[in-house]
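#onboarding

Welcome to the new folks! Below is a worked example of what a typical request in this channel looks like: someone posts a single protein sequence, and someone else replies with the predicted structure as tokens. Don't worry about understanding the tokens yet, we'll cover that in week two.

Example request:
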Amino acid sequence: MSGRVVVGAAIMGLACGGSADLLLVEGRIWTGTGVEASALAMQDGRVAAVGTTAEVERWAGPRTERIELAGRFVVPGFLDSHTHFLDGGFELAGVQLRDAATPAEFARRIGAFAAQHSGQWITGGTWDHELWGGELPQRDWVDSVTPGTPVFVSRLDGHMALANTRALELAGITAATPDPPGGTIVRDAAGAPTGVLKDEAMGLVGRAVPERTPLELDRALDAAVRHAIERGVTHVTDMGSWPGLEAYRRAATAGRLPIRVRAAVPIATWERLAAYVAQHGRGDDRLAWGVVKGFVDGSLGSTTAWFSEPYADAPGTSGLRVTDTAVLRSQILAAHAAGLQVAIHAIGDRANDWLLDVYAGARGAGSTADARFRVEHAQHLTRGAIARFAEVGVIAAMQPYHAIDDGRWAEKRIGPERIRTTYAFRDLLDAGATVAFGSDWTVAPLDPVYGIYAAVTRRTLDGAHPEGWVPAQRITVEEALAGYTRAAAFAAFREGDLGTLEPGKYADLVVLGGDLRTTPPEQLDQVRVDLTMVGGHVVFRREGT
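Example response:
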């Protein structure tokens, strides 16, 4: 027998007989279904019952284990809808520039890292030039401390990077090198490269960086997984690569993948993925594929997001189309026709309008497929675009932490009017759109609790907006939780077995040290994960809990 009844009664599912493998009792369980509970039973890796402790105790047997929650808060396992997961694993062991607050500190950290890794490429970094007033770094800042060591460190958004002179030499970039389509080589007054490359120009150096070995990829994956489970993340969608997909397959085959993964590959390779699906299927409940990722534009921080009007602080540009839009349109339609899910990066308002038009056209072409088209980021929208997400049935895959990060300086980029519909969580939900949350790690921290804090408070990182930056776009804790659970599961075609805690679904869950619903909003970011479970197995337990 299966089904669901009102609050206070046990929700029976799965087996009619037998006992549970594990009980969680005396807690506060947010099931994501509207049902309140204090206990949960698991059997064969799935939720067997949810209800009061007394009701769920009926599932106890002689070998049933028990975890006393002592009032702690339980939620479904967090699904991160947008990560660069393997990059995150590499980043954990790389040079750390995210909080370098001055040019001198930026150079010092790179020099110190180079001293320990002489001759090896230094990549990653995730610097933020806004921390020191907005001046872009230059290669001569680091050349003297990196003799013989090529440096290619990216801005935190991944749309701009600094190369030192050695890296430019290895890439063959000189004053005579033209800007590639969709990219910019930043130059000084004499026309010489400063070392900063934007969007597609980064590929000129990227091609000179040695490819990661399978062993390096495997180690990065292991590091990223440890980082994820400590933060309650039980499923990620990785905006990755073919070598990344093979790394996931190696890990899954060897039993080294304790979380669930949906691996995306570049949309330019959609034909290869279609053939791969025909040969291997779409994966299983641990590792799945079948989604392609592309780009319309760049980022706000790099002034390469594509807008209808020029930037307020850079009136000579309205941003970039990173990919030729005729080519991208063709790829989207072909990938969709091949039965693949399409997830496209769009940040500026013009980029989002263009992409929504393409998706609407694909639906209007007579397609009856369950496409679940995705807009990755959907950061800056027109009022008309907000309504169209629901009308066209497009998923807004958004990252709340970006709002409290970009909110420090976004108004100087696009002015007071356009920021009203920036990170428009409230308006999108009110319009009936599906809003799936994620982190964009390594661009932002992986921790979903930080994302929930950002969505609920919109308090910028600099403390300048204690009541919230564009506070009209704040949402509730439960709406934010849904973005990281139910909606994220839907975005990954996993709503049948993930995203809520109800009988028959996988027992992927997180035990938190505090109830997010009753924690003061300004303290939400202080709540920590005590325990993470995937398929009924404890994969992380905080020491002392």
